[in-house]
Specification:
This protein is mainly beta. The chain is built from 2 helices and 16 strands.
């Protein structure tokens, strides 16, 4: 059975006949109809401005030779601190056209100044010293967003009734390919659902080599 049919059936059973006002369910799948995780879903109202929220500062750490979290979503105007909580040095760079930045070699325990993001879209940060390390930051000009789980589902509650542009972005699109889009009407009472099919099979997320190899690479590639 294909992904979308399974998810819709599970949703109906799970709700048990009860619906929640202002809920959006997005289902994401790959080209073969298999569930796609790590898809960022964002809802932007049509014809009206999204509510203003206070800019936030989040932290993306470098731990065990990976970025944590792998994907972050922030509101436009918010900032990210890339803190080194690892045992080796790192050197972070992003070639994003909307907000290029570089954090030169920084030692374990260092907390560089926050980086503010004022443009919508995806940002990819790399570690130059350890080429498997990637961090993805998605900047949304809306307070309504979420990320798909292992079943490809994203559920976003408390959405005011109205018409919305919905975007769906996956890390395999990178920072230059556009996200998928759809339009959706959220009812005053009930649940609205949309589906997204990406025309690719997701790449395997790269992992750090064995610890002995990692330590040598981290200490000698600068």
């Amino acid at each position: 059975m294909k992904l979308f049919a399974r998810c819709v059936g599970a949703l109906i059973v799970g709700l048990g006949g009860f619906v929640h006002a202002g809920t959006v369910i997005a289902v994401a799948g790959d080209r073969d109809g298999q569930a796609l995780t790590n898809v960022v879903i964002a809802l932007k109202p049509i014809g009206v401005a999204a509510p203003v929220t206070v800019p936030a500062t989040i932290t993306v750490t470098q731990e065990a030779m990976t970025f944590k979290p792998y994907i972050s979503i922030i509101r436009k105007g918010s900032s990210v601190v890339f803190a080194n909580r690892d045992t080796v040095e790192h050197h972070i760079k992003s070639f994003s056209s909307s907000r290029p930045f570089e954090i030169a070699v920084h030692k374990p325990g260092d907390t560089p100044p926050p980086i503010r993001f004022d443009a919508e879209g995806a940002i990819v940060a790399y570690c130059i010293l350890h080429d498997w390390m990637r961090a993805y930051v998605y900047v949304a000009d809306t307070p309504w967003y979420g990320t798909s789980d292992a079943s490809g589902l994203t559920r976003i509650d408390n959405i005011p009734a109205g018409d919305y542009d919905v975007t769906a972005w996956h890390p395999d699109l990178g920072q230059f390919k556009p996200p998928l889009t759809a339009r959706l009407t959220v009812p005053a009472s009930g649940t609205a659902q949309t589906t997204f099919k990406f025309e690719f099979k997701p790449r395997v997320i790269r992992q750090a080599p064995k610890s002995s190899t990692v330590k040598t690479a981290g200490l000698h590639q600068h």
